[in-house]
Specification:
The chain has 327 residues and is mainly α. 29% of the residues are buried.
Amino acid sequence: MLVFVLRRLFQAVIVMLTVAFIAFMLFQYVGDPVNNILGQDATPEQRAQLRIDLGLDKPFPLQFARFVGNAVRGEFGLSLRQGRKVSSLIAERLPATLELAFVAASLALLLGIPMGVYAALRRGSFLSQALMTISLLGVSLPVFLIGILLILVFAVTLKWLPSFGRGEVTMLGQWSTGFLTVDGWKHLILPSITLAVFQLTLIMRLVRSEMLEVLRADYIKFARARGLPNRVVYFGHALRNTLVPVITITGLQLGGLIAFAIITETVFQWPGMGLLFIQAVTFADIPVMAAYLCLIALIFVVINLAVDMLYFVVDPRLRVEKSAAAH
């Protein structure tokens, strides 16, 4: 187990260094930070002094080492667009994105798994066929179209819910949250549903297909032959083995919810990291783009490591294989 964890950590370090190198190359080949900061009217002396202050006069390896050292401390310099520290901008926007991703992931799991199990156990029923048809639409429709349709129906036509913004938030120290206000929940409903639709339908279809495959396994037939009730067979044996691949997909999708909430945040003007990244791309704000890239890579690495650890809890066969390999 310890060797497995150390190997994963080594791989995570390699991945993060690779992503850091890609982010660092943005500073080298996407725009000129000196020109972006000083503008066209700066004198050559001012430009030379700023290059020294930014460390751009150093050799390439030293610049990259400095960039990695600052990134480890969470420092990515100043935003070229807003003139503020990038770490402060990320800290302000991160709570909104995490709340949106958390609610969307909760909806996808709490609805997707039961719907997938039902569609597998009652695959000939009308409701099961209806769920599969709806899931096909959910997988096929683009996120921005789902968001626009929800805004048209619930915000414009029915006027039940707001169409943009985060609403009223409460500060808990340095952390802002909309979970403690009614207005915050109202603003959260439409974007979270929009972000959750694809993940929900994907999980439902995956659970259904895995459940059908597990139900055909020999140990399920043996459990039925022993006279075990259907509840024990379905939820005590079949569902637990079904969740092993679901954990993988869910873990990756959770990272995807955070990383790819860009479209949802843009449609609903949700003040999260995705909207910040879109604005940074529009204005070629390289420090913000680099910080976003590194942060998303770190989130994926941490989630993948947690998923690998969770395998050992859910699937005892992995522990047996590791023990046999050690001997």
